[in-house]
């Protein structure tokens, strides 16, 4: 039938796809994450000096990947929760016609929704901003304890010998509250970042797809066209969103490493600016921007490609039946 809805991946598939992309990006980019944490923990060091200190020490290669396990758990399951929640929210908003003050791009039927490089429903900027922010904040709250353990484990301020030891020490000295240190700054960083990322990402794909119109077909874009467009869009979106939200990331790191000294987000921000200047709010920007650009572009490109291929295969199966 002409009005039959196209086959869509299940929520469990989106969870698994998100988990896979999160594990991949976390494993590959852990050294950048560790260096960012070390640089942000104090202004008395630089990226080059930090890198030299690590590489000149014993087991330098192993030290660069210190904290990989909590990072993989956090990013893997965080991405799984984020993508599955985001998909559910986007499908609900699309089907119920919510948040359409800026007009939802219509997706009339099956292949028409692939007129850009996207494998996902096309929503308004307001809907993209809202769903991205809610999905990221929700996933961040659930994964906050492992995030705190990860940051402390990566830092040179603590001498934890194991993840269990780190968790036990936090619980003993700070209680349950310690596992949520810096959540306010994290939420204020992640929610706007994710919302802005989805807006910039979808807009970039739309613009880049228009540039490909001369060579792309009017129907579903070929994988050879959609993959580079999605990856480049991810890089551009991550760069912009990261630059805007980096001050919250710098504050978040200080709160998670030294909660007793900085107390809360407002106090930490004022103290950092007073003692170290405005530049302290942009510590680690280059590393974070580079890491986010690659990790987000990789995660979203692989995720969308998995969804596109799966839904295409299921659609072919349903037609043959």
Tell me about this structure:
This protein has 321 residues and is mainly alpha-helical. 72% of the residues lie in helices and 0% in strands. It is built from 12 helices and no strands. It has helices at residues 11-40, 47-56, 60-64, 68-96, 125-142, 144-154, 163-174, 183-211, 223-257, 259-262, 265-276, 285-320. The protein starts with 10 loop residues before the first helix and ends with a helix. The model is unreliable at 1-6 and 101-115 (pLDDT under 50).
Supply database-style keywords.
321 residues, 0% strand, globular
Quick structural summary:
The chain has twelve helices and no strands. It is mostly helical. Helix 4 runs antiparallel to helix 5 and helix 5 runs antiparallel to helix 8.
Blueprint (SSEs and pairs):
Layout (H helix, E strand, L loop, with lengths): L10 H30 L6 H10 L3 H5 L3 H29 L28 H18 L1 H11 L8 H12 L8 H29 L11 H35 L1 H4 L2 H12 L8 H36 L1
Helix pairs in contact: 1-4, 1-12, 4-5, 4-6, 5-8, 6-7, 8-9, 9-11, 9-12
């Amino acid at each position: 039938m002409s009005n039959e809805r196209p086959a869509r991946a299940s929520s469990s598939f989106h969870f698994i796809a998100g988990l896979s992309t999160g594990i991949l990006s976390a494993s590959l980019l852990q050294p950048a994450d560790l260096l960012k944490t070390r640089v942000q923990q104090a202004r008395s060091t630089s990226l080059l000096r930090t890198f030299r200190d690590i590489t000149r020490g014993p087991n330098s290669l192993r030290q660069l990947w210190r904290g990989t396990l909590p990072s993989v758990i956090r990013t893997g399951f965080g991405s799984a929760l984020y993508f599955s929640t985001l998909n559910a929210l986007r499908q609900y908003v699309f089907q119920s016609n919510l948040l359409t003050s800026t007009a939802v791009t219509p997706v009339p039927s099956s292949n028409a929704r692939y007129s850009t490089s996207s494998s996902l429903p096309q929503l308004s900027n307001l809907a993209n901003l809202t769903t991205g922010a809610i999905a990221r904040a929700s996933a961040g709250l659930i994964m906050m304890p492992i995030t705190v353990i990860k940051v402390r484990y990566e830092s040179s301020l603590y001498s934890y010998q194991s993840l269990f030891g780190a968790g036990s020490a936090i619980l003993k000295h700070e209680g349950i509250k310690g596992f949520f240190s810096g959540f306010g700054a994290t939420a204020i960083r992640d929610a706007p970042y994710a919302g802005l990322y989805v807006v910039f990402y979808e807009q970039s794909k739309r613009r880049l797809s228009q540039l490909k119109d001369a060579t792309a077909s009017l129907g579903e874009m070929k994988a050879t066209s959609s993959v580079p467009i999605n990856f480049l869009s991810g890089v551009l979106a991550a760069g912009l969103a990261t630059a805007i939200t980096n001050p919250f990331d710098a504050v978040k790191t200080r709160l998670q490493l030294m909660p007793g000294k900085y107390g809360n987000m407002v106090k930490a921000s004022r103290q950092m600016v007073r003692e170290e200047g405005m530049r302290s709010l942009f510590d680690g920007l280059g590393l974070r921007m580079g890491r986010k650009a690659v990790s987000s572009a990789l995660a979203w490109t692989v995720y969308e490609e998995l969804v596109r291929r799966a839904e295409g295969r299921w659609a072919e199966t349903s037609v043959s039946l």
